[in-house]
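2024-03-11 09:14:02 INFO worker-7 job=invfold-0412 stage=load source=structure_tokens
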């Protein structure tokens, strides 16, 4: 990658975590090339293309499964609190970050390309979307109904989570998200009534900053984020968001969120651990 000219590297294949990707710039260029009049397309500008991608309902799940990867550059002054593995991966892509002015870098694999095809208006994307839907329908016809596949997938995801020692309530939440992505079956109504969601051990309870603030008597999620930062558990990334420090990583879990047409990631924090740290600080 480092041997390529900047103009070329942004459109070249990218190897990340042992998987092949292309940048969003590459797919955007393909979209323009496949459009009859590039200047009149709905997503002529790259930022509009990215906005469409992030508006996909399943975007958080594609991130979770590494079909789409969001990477942010880490400046030298922020390196100290960043996970070393992530830092090394980012530094290996420095040439790519330079090409995009060190803005957020988006990598997409073949699965993400198919997902985008369902939303783009160029002829090739339409044909790809139809082909993908047809292939899925043929696989399901005469073999397995969506509800049966959802049941099988759920059992597999929960079993794997148990092997990894994931608390049951978290395993259920994430498994339901993945089942929705793979089968289209929404199991959230059942999740609401699941006993494990009401029997969370105190040591396993994880909450986002806004909910954590309510439990701990802090006036707002913004103030809670400031407190977490003051405890050395998180710090700002170059995009203005929050990332756990090395100390915070042990008691934080990445969490996908969706609100209206917006999606993304934030972090849930172990309530018992934060309460203990606040208590220690008060003493």
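2024-03-11 09:14:09 INFO worker-7 stage=emit residues=283
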């Amino acid at each position: 990658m480092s041997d390529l000219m900047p103009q070329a590297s942004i459109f070249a294949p990218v190897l990340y975590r042992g998987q092949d990707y292309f940048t969003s710039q590459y797919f955007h260029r393909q979209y323009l090339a496949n459009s009859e009049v590039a200047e009149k397309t709905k997503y002529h500008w790259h930022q509009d293309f990215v906005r469409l991608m992030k508006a996909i309902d399943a975007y958080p799940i594609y991130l979770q499964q590494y079909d789409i990867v969001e990477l942010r550059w880490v400046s030298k002054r922020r390196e100290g609190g960043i996970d070393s593995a992530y830092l090394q991966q980012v530094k290996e892509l420095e040439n790519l970050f330079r090409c995009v002015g060190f803005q957020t870098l988006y990598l997409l694999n073949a699965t993400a390309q198919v997902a985008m095809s369902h939303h783009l208006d160029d002829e090739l994307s339409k044909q790809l979307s139809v082909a993908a839907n047809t292939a899925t329908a043929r696989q399901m016809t005469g073999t397995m109904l969506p509800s049966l596949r959802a049941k099988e997938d759920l059992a597999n995801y929960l079993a794997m989570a148990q092997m990894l020692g994931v608390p049951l309530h978290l395993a259920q939440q994430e498994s339901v998200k993945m089942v929705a992505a793979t089968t289209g079956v929404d199991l959230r109504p059942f999740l609401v009534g699941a006993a494990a969601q009401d029997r969370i051990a105190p040591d396993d309870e994880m909450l986002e900053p806004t909910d954590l603030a309510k439990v701990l008597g802090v006036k707002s999620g913004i103030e809670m984020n400031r407190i977490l930062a003051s405890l050395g558990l998180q710090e700002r990334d170059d995009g203005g968001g929050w990332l756990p420090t090395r100390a915070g990583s042990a008691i934080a879990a990445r969490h996908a969120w969706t609100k209206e047409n917006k999606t993304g990631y934030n972090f849930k924090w172990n309530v018992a651990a934060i309460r203990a740290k606040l208590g220690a600080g008060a003493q």
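2024-03-11 09:14:09 INFO worker-7 stage=report msg="The chain has three domains: 6-131, 144-197, 202-282."
2024-03-11 09:14:10 INFO worker-7 job finished
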